[in-house]
Amino acid sequence: MTLQTTVVYPMTDREILNQLSEIEKKRDFLLMLQRAKVSKPSLFFFANYKNTGDHQQFTQLDNSHFPFDLSNEIQNLIEDSIEEFNRQIEALKFML
After folding, report:
1. Structure pTM?
2. Residue 96 neighbours by CB distance under 10 Å
3. Taking the CB of the first residue and of the last residue of the chain, which one, N or C, has fewer CB atoms within 10 A?
4. What does the alpha-carbon distance between residue 61 and residue 34 come to, in Å, rounded to a whole number?
5. Per-residue pLDDT of the chain (96 residues; tens, 9 = 90+)
6. Is residue 5 part of a domain?
7. Structural domain tally of the chain?
8. Nearest-angstrom CA–CA distance, 82 and 88
9. Which residue range(s) make up the domain with 18?
10. Residue 15, CA atoms < 13 Å, CB-side half-sphere
């Protein structure tokens, strides 16, 4: 039996800076959304229905489909995502 090992090299400064840039763009977009008032939210997505032969259908859900306020949940998701992106940014900056 042959054991394979994978050597993982540390990221280069260029790779870190590229990743930082990508995460900061995502965070900045969410910061912009955080300042906006969310009203009449809707979710759009494709759903695969296995019992119909993997039929894919575009689906829309709005606040009437949920027993909670979708606007508040979206705001919570945005806030949590911003916090996570900030943690990732700090970790990457530490690597420089």
Report:
1. 0.78
2. 9
3. N
4. 21
5. 666 777 778 889 999 999 999 999 999 999 999 998 888 899 888 887 776 666 778 889 999 999 999 999 999 999 999 999 999 999 999 998
6. no
7. 1
8. 10
9. 13-95
10. 5
